[in-house]
């Protein structure tokens, strides 16, 4: 028995010593408490050089993790097992996070660079007074197409997608809100519509699109369109920009009936352990030079008015990605539809996908 106790004591002391050593090493490498900042973001959605500069300027070590959907991000934060100091969700997810008390209110006095944000993108319905979130990137949902392969179609209307000349030529994003929203917009309805008759009408119309649908895909849509594996794609504007960089034959348009105006915003989740560092990072990203460089790297539209002035004219004056208020006035932000209605949208989309096979 004494030998067992002695063995246990030795193991306990050794384990404790290892904990002390690990703590010392972490502190020496910037991995402790206020010296660490864990950022949770979409993949390939920041200039990595900016992370290095932030570390050099502040002495804070950045741990960078990525997610591939708002739903995956929400699940991880709801579980609470991982400390995230800054996350970058989309507008409807922010609304849900507010409802579930998953966000820390921002201290605007620690964000002097907030004045650089275009007022058009502040105080929106999903976060009035920007109490919990600060704009990071914004954009639209529209159509990328190859003019050489579509027989003169210009896609000024969503209804052009139903043209029989496009048989087996359309790629769609694998997203319920985007595809069901497209169906609703094509009928003149809001993409936040919850009227069951309107939703069924949208599903019925989408079912007639299936002869033209080549595939419903994820991130590979960029490669497929750039390689001319299909003539047309339903995409986010930032992806459109990236696709067009790879293949300059392609063009991008938002149909006249309207579409989605989306925002990805920086927030501080309740899981945060370094709230001061989180404010420092958000303010760092709001610096005009940093925001401009980030926009050039990522390819999405910056909401930073001062950063926009620093971008090359071929970017800042491209109305496909920086549309005027005439078009943005027709666009809608996704509302948080609630669990029941969002589930219904997903069911409708699944029914459409099954019909498309």
From TrEMBL:
Top-rank taxon, per record: Bacteria
Native source organism of the sequence: Paenibacillus xylanivorans
Residues binding spermidine: 92
MF term (GO), any: polyamine binding
TM region(s), chain numbering: none
Keyword Signal: yes
Main location: periplasm
Localization in the cell: Periplasm
InterPro entries: SBP, Sperm_putr-bd
Protein name: Spermidine/putrescine ABC transporter substrate-binding protein
GO cellular component annotations of the record: periplasmic space
Keywords assigned by UniProt, alphabetized: Periplasm, Signal, Transport
GO biological process: polyamine transport
Pfam families hit by this protein: SBP_bac_8
């Amino acid at each position: 028995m004494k030998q067992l106790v002695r063995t246990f004591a030795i193991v306990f002391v050794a384990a404790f010593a290892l904990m002390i050593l690990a703590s010392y090493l972490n502190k020496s490498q910037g991995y402790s408490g206020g010296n660490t900042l864990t950022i949770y973001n979409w993949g390939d959605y920041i200039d990595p050089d900016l992370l290095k500069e932030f570390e050099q300027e502040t002495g804070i070590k950045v741990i960078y993790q990525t997610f591939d959907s708002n739903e995956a991000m929400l699940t991880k934060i709801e579980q609470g097992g991982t400390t995230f100091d800054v996350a970058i969700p989309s507008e409807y997810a922010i609304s849900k996070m507010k409802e579930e008390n998953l966000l820390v209110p921002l201290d605007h006095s620690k964000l002097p660079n907030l004045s650089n944000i275009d007022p058009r993108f502040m105080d929106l319905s999903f976060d009035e007074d920007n109490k919990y979130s600060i704009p990071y990137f914004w954009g639209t949902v529209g159509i990328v197409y190859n003019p050489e392969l579509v027989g003169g179609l210009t896609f000024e209307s969503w209804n052009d997608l139903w043209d029989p000349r496009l048989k087996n030529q359309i790629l769609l994003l694998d997203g319920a809100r985007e595809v069901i929203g497209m169906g609703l917009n094509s009928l003149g309805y809001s993409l936040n519509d919850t009227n069951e008759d309107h939703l069924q009408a949208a599903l019925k119309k989408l079912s007639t699109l299936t002869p033209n649908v080549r595939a419903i895909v994820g991130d590979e849509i960029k490669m497929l369109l750039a390689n001319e594996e299909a003539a047309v794609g339903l995409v986010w504007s930032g992806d459109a920009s990236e696709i067009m960089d790879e293949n300059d034959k392609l063009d991008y348009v938002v149909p006249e009936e309207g579409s989605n105006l989306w925002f990805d915003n920086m927030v501080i989740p309740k899981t945060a352990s370094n709230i001061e560092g989180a404010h420092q990072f958000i303010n760092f990203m709001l610096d005009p030079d940093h925001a401009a460089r980030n926009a050039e790297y990522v390819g999405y539209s910056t909401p930073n008015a001062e950063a926009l002035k620093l971008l090359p004219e071929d970017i800042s004056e491209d109305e496909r990605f920086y549309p005027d208020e005439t078009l943005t006035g027709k666009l809608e932000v996704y509302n948080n539809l609630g669990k029941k209605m969002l589930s219904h949208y997903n069911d409708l989309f699944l029914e459409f996908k099954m019909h498309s096979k």
